[in-house]
Amino acid sequence: MVDARHVIPRAELSARASRAGGAGGQHVNTSSTRVEVLWNPATSRALDNDERARVTERLAARLDADGRVRVVASDTRSQKQNRELAEGRLADLVRRALVVPKKRKATRPTRASTERRLEEKKRESHKKGERRRRDWE
């Protein structure tokens, strides 16, 4: 479940288990607990066309050659827990990619801030002008 409106069907996810690297001793060397979850947003029924385009654009750096998003988890010693973690991470990625940024509302600086800025510019100019006009002889 991505959010209240979007649920990625499990049938669209493909998972692959492999041996995790790093510390863990003999357990790591013998068990395939690392889980890799793949999902293709371009063919997903969970998204409409606009959302599909937004997700594909936002996650472009994470897409493989086939257009699938790949998420990996090897945090725990349990394949089931790692699969749940990977699916949760995928849901979080998609949730963040679906957010539509708010349009920036153009504003003008206040009169007081403009006057302060110009006054500061005059002070700096005067200070530097004083340095130049000195007769050092």
In brief, what are we looking at here?
With 137 residues, the chain is α+β, with helices and mostly antiparallel strands. Helix content is 42%, strand content 12%.
Q: Can you put this structure into words, describing what you see?
A:
The protein has 137 residues and is α+β, with helices and mostly antiparallel strands. It has a domain at 10-98: Double Stranded RNA Binding Domain, CATH 3.30.160. The chain is built from 4 helices and 3 strands, in the order E-H-E-H-E-H-H. It has helices spanning 26-30, 49-58, 79-98, 111-133; strands at 13-18, 34-39, 69-73. Strands 1-2-3 form a 3-stranded antiparallel sheet. The radius of gyration is 28 Å and the shape is elongated. The relative contact order is 0.15. The model has no long low-confidence stretch (mean pLDDT 83).
Mass-distribution shape: elongated
Annotated CATH architecture of one domain: 2-Layer Sandwich
What does the main sheet amount to?
A: 3 strands, antiparallel
Enumerate the spans where pLDDT stays under 50 for 5 or more consecutive residues.
none
Number of helices, counting only DSSP H or I runs of 4 residues or more: 4
Strand content: 5-15%
- The averaged pLDDT comes out at 83
Q: Which class do the helix and strand fractions yield? A: alpha+beta
- Stated plainly, the CATH topology of one domain is called Double Stranded RNA Binding Domain
State the helicity in percent bands.
Answer: 40-55%
Elements, N to C (H/E):
EHEHEHH
Secondary structure: number of strands: 3
CA(first)-CA(last) distance: 80 Å
**CATH structural class of one domain:** Alpha Beta
**For the CA atoms, what is the radius of gyration?**
28 Å
Strand order of the largest sheet: 1-2-3
